[in-house]
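Hey L., structure's done. Input below.
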Amino acid sequence: MIMNYGFVKVAAAVPSVKVADCKYNARQIEQLSVIADGKGVRVIAFPELSITGYTCGDLFQQQLLLDTAEVELMQLLNNTRQLDIIVIIGAPVFLGAEIINAAVVIQHGNILGIVPKTYLPNYKEFYEKRWFTSAVGISDQMIHFCGQSVMLSSHLLFETPEVTFGIEICEDLWAPIPPSSYLALKGADIIFNLSADNDIIGKHRYLCSLIAQQSARCLAGYVFSSCGFGESTTDVVFGGNGLIYENGTLLARSERFCFEEQLVVSEIDVERIRSERRTNSTFIANKTNVSFEVKKVVTELMSEKPLVLTRKFDPCPFVPSGDKLKEHCEEIFSIQTAGLAKRIVHTHSKTVVLGISGGLDSTLALLVCVKTFDKLHLDRHNIISVTMPGFGTTDRTYSNAVNLIHSLGTTLREISIAPACYQHFSDIGHDEEVHDVTYENSQARERTQILMDIANQENGLVIGTGDLSELALGWATYNGDHISMYGVNCSIPKTLVKYLVEWVADYTDSKSKETLKDIINTPISPELIPANENGTIKQKTEDIVGPYELHDFFLYYFIRFGFRPSKIYFLAQQTFGGVYSDDIIRKWLHTFMHRFFTQQFKRSCLPDGPKVGSVSLSPRGDWRMPSDAVSTAWEEDSEV
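Output:
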């Protein structure tokens, strides 16, 4: 069985058109359908009235044009009989004394259904009510068209083994409550829109915003195909928009004002859409507001074809690109400072206490504390920054910690943990030459004890420094760095931490900036094992648990969308090919799944901390998982 992991390949076609030349237009539709079928496209949409051209005007009242359109559709049915692809064509449909602006859905030589347009524009340049009748004035019925008995209804849903989709036409999208809203609530994963949108200044930007918002509100895919070159330019120009969105995100688009036909192809992740809907209580509750009943059309089984992805996936899904990164960092930093400020005010704390290691996480936490104190008009000297050198502390991290504390004007306290740890090893009978988990964790717990006791002395709060990635992997010592009184970094993934620190560095004094830049370039390490003979870091986290860019990628798709490990592996292959081998990706994915399940007990008793993004592991609302859940199925699935 071929695994497509929920991806459905769709296309928006923008064919060249000759107004009122149905034979030419049908040939263009056929050619693009054949190409799309060869690419593995499951459903393709053509523009509104694509068989005739949208700008026929009063020619729509000519019986010859209507008859010719039907004849060419019949020929098209015959010529595409061998194709698996479902083709949605815009056509005028003659119904007694009325003409319908409709979408005709065909596959394997059969018409699956006809969807009439609901909202007809009455603008100066578009006067569709002159020629067509709205779906509002037509009852659902079986009609005879192209030699077949066909259901005509604006409430049709088309169901394949892979996807359920609905259709609306052009102006329908611009209505206060578009038909697609109801179709999505009734089960449509993807909406196809056959359109004839002309272009004027500013309209395209608004159109894209409209589609993005509608696909996001409906938690759906949205495929938009609008007519382009070849339509009459008597009064208006059509830019030819082919747009594919998934839950508010643009996946693919056509080139506007192109003089050639275009085929816009991408893959919509139906599994992701259904996952989003299952966890969105508002979407589920809103389904009760839909009074009408839909009619489902079940299509024939399509032949299986290997999935070839054309869409790309960001290797750092938590980190936006370009100008959005600065905006993102500013908002996150503001959330962190606001959260900490409230906790300080509420507890009447005089100080905050945190351990500064010279690493990224504690640096970010310190920067948050400094910003918070400045906004509360508190003296930075009441930020007690404690550096606690241990057996693995290097000169580089120690110097960076001390320099940063001094340059930011916070209070430095230096307490070596070595004497206390040696005493502890003696007390419990542990050989100090054995560098095992006891050796490592005793240091982390000693540091936490020091911080907690100083906080008691100084009427303060211990600020946690651990990040989201560490929580996912359980890369923290239970009752050590795992515990604090408020964890400001708890929902910030490791791949984002360095960008936040870098963003702050650009707005700070030159001395602090120099130190921050060196911290950013320091290898990630807990520094619990003595340094090597050169005095440099010997224990590198990513050598032990794997690259954080992979783990953050796994975390995002595992928590945000509930994807199975085999699908995450498939996406990682597409994204990190050439960077990591398949075996390396599989190895670290298995590690992620194993550690995520076995370390849940640490997340079950996390301190408070601010949520900053869509992925969080707080046991109080975001991630409620039993500590003894078995990971067998997930580990087996990760070994694809």
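The mean pLDDT is 93. Residues 605 and 619 are 7 Å apart (CA to CA).

-- N.
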